[in-house]
Amino acid sequence: MKIVDKIAQKSAEGKPFYSFEYFPPKTTQGLSNLFDRIGRMQALSPTFVTCTWGAGGSTFEKTTELSAVAQTVHGLETCMHLTCTNMDRGKVDDALAEAKKAGIQNILALRGDPPRGQEYWTKIDDTFVHAIDLVRYIRQEYGDYFCIGVAGYPEGHMDSTDLSSDREIGYLKEKIEAGADFVLTQLFYDIEGFLAWEKQCRVLGITCPIIPGIMPIQSFNGFRRITNLAKIRVPATIAAALEPIQSDDQKVKDFGVELAAKMIQQLLGAGITGFHICTLNLEKSVRLILERVGFVQPARKPQQLNAPTHVNTDESAPGTFRPDAITNKDSYLNPLIWKPAAADTAQGRSESWDDFPNGRWGDARSPAFGDLDGYGASLKVEPRTALELWKRPTSAEDISNLFVEFIQGKIPLLPWSEGSPLPETEAIQSRLVSCNERGLWTVGSQPAVNGKPSTDPLVGWGPKGGYVYQKSFVELFVGPNEVAAMVQKLRTSSPWITFFAASRDGEVVNNATGDVLEEQRKIAELKKACNGTPSSSGSTKATPSGQQETPVCAAPFTKGSDDALVEGSNAVTWGVFPGKEIIQPTVIEKVSFLAWRDEAFEIWRDWEHLYPKGSASQKLLHQIGHDYWLFNVVHNDFRDESGIWDIVLA
Predict the structure, then answer these.
(1) pLDDT score, position 525
(2) Which of 301, 329, 354 is the last residue of a domain?
(3) Per the structure, how many domains does the chain have?
(4) Do residues 433 and 533 both lie within one domain?
(5) How would you classify the pairing of strands 629-635 and 472-478?
(6) N or C, which end of the chain is more exposed by having fewer CB within 10 Å?
(7) Is residue 444 part of a domain?
(8) Are residues 282 and 390 in the same domain?
(9) Does pLDDT of 608 surpass 70?
(10) For residue 127, what pLDDT is reported?
C-alpha cells in the first residue's frame, strides 16, 4: 500500500501517525537482532518504516534484505531509501526490481552523499545528478507503481548554505512536480524554524504531506556529531540543558526522550499530525516517547522475573553474555522466542540490553553497533573544511605532522575522529606524540586506570559515587615495512598483550598459540610482502558512553585462518557503582575490529577523494590506504600505566 494512502486514512479518521527509520547493521548478528527488534516494535503500530541506503550502494544487499523482511515477514508498510550518486543504472534498476519483488511500493529518492570530485562521481548516463533525476527515472520506468518520497531541509541543505529559503523550497517543489508524493524532512530541534519553513512551503504551493524528522538524543557524542555534520541549529535552551549532564548517559537519554515528546506535542498543537522518528536502531526511547505523547499505552510492569528472552547469537560469533541475554539454554540457536504470558518482561529486557551503545567500541551483536548517529564511517566535515584542516599532504612525514598537531590540539579533528582529543589524553600525550612522530598513526587510545573516582575530571564517567577502571590500549596504522617487527614484539614482549592486526585486503594476524617455527614462517611471509612504501595518531578515546551490564572474560587470541581465530571479547573499560552490576561500556572483539577495519580503510579512500585524480596527495593517500595495516593493541594489566608504550615504542 502506498504511504500517501495510509496517511489519507489517518487523516480521515482524525488520527495522528508516526513512522520509524532503521539502518542496516554492520554485523550479521546485529542484522539478526534488528529483525527481532522490528518485530517487537511492530506492536507500537507505526504507519510505515523506512530503511536507509549506504553511499554508492554499499549496503545494497542488507538494505534490500532489511526492507523485504520488514514488508513481507512483519507486514509493515516499508519505504526503501535509494540514492543515485556513485551508482550505475544497473544497480538502481536492480534495487527497484528487488523492492517490487518484495511487494514494496514506497521509495525515498535521494541524491546521496555529495561527490568528492568529478572524477570520483559516477553519473548515470549524465542524467542522475540530483534527486529530481531519480524521481523522473522511477516515474518513467515504473509509472504510478511506486509512491515516491523526497527529502526536505527546513534549515537548508548542508551543501547549499548560499541558497535562500525560498530557492531551496523551489527545488523541493520541482521534485514534487516531477512526480514525488510526500516529503520527509531532515531532523531539526528548532520548532519555530520548522513551522516557519513548513508555512512557507504551503505558501509557495506545496500541498503534499510534509513529515518532520524527529531524532531523539540517544547520546551526547552522537548528538554533537550529527548536529555538526548536518549543520543543525541547536537552540540555546537545549545546549544549556545538556551541558551539565553530558557525561551522564542515562540523564542524556532521559532528556532526549522528554525533548522529543515535547517537540511532538508542540508540533501537534501547530497542526502537524505526522512524525518520522529516527530510531538509530534502538527501541526503548522510541516507546517511551510514544507513551509520553499518548500515542501508545504505557507498558505494564513485568510480572515474571524468569521469562525466557533471547538475544540472537551464534557459537561461531563472539558473545558477551548478560544475565538477561539468555534464560532458556535450549533456545539459544532459535529466533527470538516470545511467549504472550511473559511479553512484558521479554520486551523490557530485550529492548534495553543495548540501550547505551558505544559506537564501534560496543557490543557487536547490537543493531546499533558502530553508529552513534546513523551516518556510519565517513569524513565528518564538508570537503572545503577538510582541505583547510588537512592541507595537501605529499609525504608520510606530512601525515605524521597532522596526527601530532591533532594530539597537541593545534587542529580540531582528523578523518577518523569525531572531535578534539578527550581530557584523559593528557595522561598519555607525550607517548602519543612519540608514536606519531615515528610514523605509527594512532586513531584510538586510552590510558590505564586503576580505581579512579567516577567524578575524576580526566577519566571519570557514569553516576557519582563509583570507581572506574581501564586497560590501556592503542589503535594505530603501521607502515608495511614495520608490520613484521610490530607483530613479533607484540607476540613476544609480554603475556599481558593481546592484539589484532589487519590489512585492507583481509589478512588478519593476532596473538599466536602455535609453535615458534609457525610464528617465524608467518613473520617471514610478512617481511616478504613488505616492499618499500611510505611509513608513518590523535587519540580519540573509546569514550564510555554506555551502560551495558555484560559479564565479559578477556581471553588470549590465536592466529590462523579468519574462521579459526578464537572468538573472544575483551572489556577494556568498566565501572563499579552503588546498587549496580559491573558496567562495561567498552569492549574489543574480533567481529567489531573487522567491521571497523573495513570502515577505517574506507576513510583513507574518502580522504583520497578530496584531491584531483593523479595529484601527489591523491596518490599518497591511495598508496597508504592499500599498503598500511591497522593494529589494535591492549595491555591487559590495568595497573601498569606504561607497559603498552614500552612495548609499542621499543
Answers:
(1) 60
(2) 301
(3) 2
(4) yes
(5) antiparallel
(6) C
(7) yes
(8) no
(9) yes
(10) 65
pLDDT for res 353: 52
Of 266, 301, 336, the residue at which a domain comes to its end is 301
C-alpha cell at 580: 549496580
Q: Is residue 369 part of a domain?
A: no
Confidence of residue 157 (pLDDT cuts 50, 70, 90): confident
- The string of DSSP codes covering 596-646 is HHHHHHHHHHHHHTTS-TTSHHHHHHHHHHHH-EEEEEEE--TT-SSHHHH
Task: Find the CATH number of the domain harbouring 248.
Answer: 3.20.20.220
Q: Provide the residue range defining the domain that includes 462.
A: 383-648
Same domain, 427 and 533: yes
Q: What is the pLDDT of residues 617-630, one digit of tens each?
A: 999 999 999 999 99
Same domain, 259 and 393: no
- Residue 374 placed within a domain: no
Mean pLDDT rounded to a whole number for the chain? 81
Cα dist. 176→34, 196, 202, 255, 614 in Å? 33, 20, 13, 36, 40
Low-confidence winner among 49-63, 192-206, 532-546 (lowest mean pLDDT): 532-546
Asked whether residue 286 falls in the same domain as residue 409, the answer is no
CB-CB contact of 309 with 338 (8 Å): no
Task: Identify whether residues 292 and 387 lie together within a single domain.
Answer: no
Q: Are strands 78-83 and 48-51 parallel, antiparallel or unpaired?
A: parallel
As a whole number of angstroms, the distance between CA 351 and CA 353 comes to: 6
Percentages (nearest 5) of helix, strand, coil residues in the chain: 40, 15, 45
Q: Report yes or no on 604 lying in a domain.
A: yes
Which grid coordinates are listed for 611? 584531491
309-334 pLDDT, tens digit per residue, is 333 433 333 333 222 222 222 222 22
Amino acid at site 103: G
Beta-bridged to residue 106, according to DSSP, are: 79, 147
Cell of residue 553, nine digits: 572474560
Scanning 411-515, the segments in alpha helix (DSSP H) are 429-437, 483-492
Q: What is the model's pLDDT at position 419?
A: 78
Looking at the structure, tell me whether residues 280 and 387 fall in a common domain. no
- 275 neighbors 18 (Cβ within 8 angstroms): yes
Active site residues: 21
